[in-house]
Write a structure and sequence with these properties.
The structure is a homodimer of 316-residue chains. Chain A has 13 helices and 8 strands. Chain A is α/β, with parallel strands linked by helices and 316 residues long. Chain A has one domain (8-305): Aldolase class I (TIM Barrel, Alpha-Beta Barrel), CATH 3.20.20.70. Chain A is globular, with a radius of gyration of 18 Å. Chains A and B meet through α8, α9, α11 and α13 of A and α8, α9, α11 and α13 of B.
Chain lengths: 316, 316
């Protein structure tokens, strides 16, 4: 358990952040925010979802959003719900370029949650994932899989650690390049976040761990920090802390849940002497742009107080 | 660095929380919140300040607030700005009872900050503190001293770790029973919060360490958690995250700075399997009462989302 020298940040505003947003955000607003974030130093974005537009009208512009990032040098991650989605991701990569780097999809450690979400048992879903991983790899894409509800499930409560790691091990066998032990609904704590990432680091040495914690109960940054100390090398975060489960969209809209805020996360890391490659001052500006595009309040504290860092870096 | 089995919480709403509040809160409102917090399991309160009412009208009711706590079994902490204030604390303890347990005062590790606040150099202030500690101990009170601006100063920027620990060592020599390496303006990070508390734990073995972090930049809970892992046994927190420096009172009023929120802190700890003795559900109710008394929004996330714990405790 020691702090790394660098941590990568994946900016999730445009996909996980907007996934439950009640209005469709204009493509130019999305692109303006993403390009500004990249200018501030973000080098990976969770850019869009390939869920069909009839289910997710927010992402009907997935092609155009990705096309607008092709010249930026960023790595793009896209969500694909099924094999058809992965095929689409491969097509987009072939058309738009290798910056479309990673395709992602979830499997819930809670089987009832998985059944509710994708109408598949674990066994059925893992069979499907095997095909999805193969297709992605054949198309040159890396694969990130989120083990959702890893710390607890809104439907069934406790989720057994053994089940989480059985699924994670199976995903690694199937070829997952990157893994998230995701806390989508704010049920993690720093003790388990640290323990789970330590165990994953030990059991899956070749796999990149990405810390994915929502701030539903105010402990998201503490959980992500615990995951980083335990071996996660990338943190998912969202400008302004935008995001949240569909069921909590009302709270989300009031700014009360969602991903951890990118601005606060980056300032914490830079202050701790951990380099992110991101300019905190520019990032705060981007967060303001993002709040304007959504006409919504921010959950980032540093948006209000400033980053408080000296020009030389951490004030220490 | 390992998680303890229990952590104490000191509820700071009524003193640190209200210190910069722009309106004087009626005594009955303060008492209602404090008694409800105690009923929820809080066993220490930062109850009031003995700064003279002409400087701090918020605390003109210090006697009555303390008198209303005498039958609760809580331990009360009071702030005293100088020797006269400590004498008043001793008088109040003699009159009202031994539940008035601790008297506290700050010294800024940044000498310019100390000069601005109390018009004394470090040497002058430490001389005064020697008398204050003696008077407190003679009157049966324990002493807590806050080394303010320990992680950085809004006036001078970086604060040398050596100065922080020289002052802390001197305070321990003078008899401080409890010590805070305080981050009043949100300039700490979990690496330094952990390192400073580890060092203090090693150098001052007989002294209780109290974690005092404001959430000015969104990392307050992560910093407090790091301090707990490093040996702090008590956390200062404020219902709804109320509080803040006088200079940031506008932001505070908008709910944008202040102490870490007691509700979120307790839920994090209980979820992590660390017992606080506090009922999270009752505490959330108290936080609602506190928000009503102030007619102000809360910064606590669990106020909006619920604690998500099972009746048996942590959902795990």
């Amino acid at each position: 358990m020691s702090a790394p020298e660098t941590v990568d940040i994946c900016e999730c505003w445009a996909r996980d952040g907007l996934q439950s947003w009640p209005t469709v955000v204009p493509t130019e607003g999305k692109v303006a925010v993403l390009r500004a974030a990249i200018d501030a130093g973000i080098n990976e974005v969770d850019a869009t979802s390939l869920v069909p537009p009839r289910y997710a009208p927010q992402f009907a512009d997935s092609h155009d959003v990705l096309a607008a990032l092709a010249d930026t040098g960023v790595k793009a991650r896209v969500l694909a719900p099924n094999l058809k989605g992965v095929r689409r991701a491969v097509e987009l990569r072939a058309e738009l370029g290798g910056f479309i780097d990673t395709v992602g999809f979830p499997i819930s450690a809670s089987e009832p949650h998985n059944l509710a979400n994708v109408k598949r048992t674990h066994a059925e879903h893992l069979t499907a994932i095997a095909d999805m991983v193969r297709c992605a790899h054949d198309g040159g894409l890396r694969v990130i899989v989120a083990v959702a509800t890893a710390y607890g499930c809104p439907l069934i409560g406790a989720v057994d650690e053994g089940v989480v790691f059985d699924i994670a091990a199976r995903l690694v066998e199937l070829g997952a390049d990157r893994l998230m032990l995701s806390d989508t609904t704010g049920l993690a704590d720093p003790v388990r976040a640290g323990a789970y990432h330590s165990r994953a680091r030990a059991e899956f040495p070749g796999v990149e761990l990405v810390a994915h914690f929502h701030d539903t109960r105010g402990s998201g940054i503490a959980n992500a920090w615990a995951a980083v100390l335990a071996g996660a090398t990338c943190i998912d975060a969202s400008l302004g802390g935008i995001g949240g489960e569909p069921s909590t969209v009302e709270q989300n809209h009031a700014g009360e849940t969602g991903n951890i805020a990118t601005e606060d996360t980056v300032v914490l890391l830079e202050r701790a002497g951990i380099r992110t490659g991101i300019d905190p001052g520019l990032l705060i500006e981007v967060g303001r742009t993002a709040a304007r595009v959504l006409d919504a309040p921010t959950r980032s504290q540093v948006q209000h107080t400033g980053h408080g860092l000296t020009p030389q870096g951490a004030q220490r």
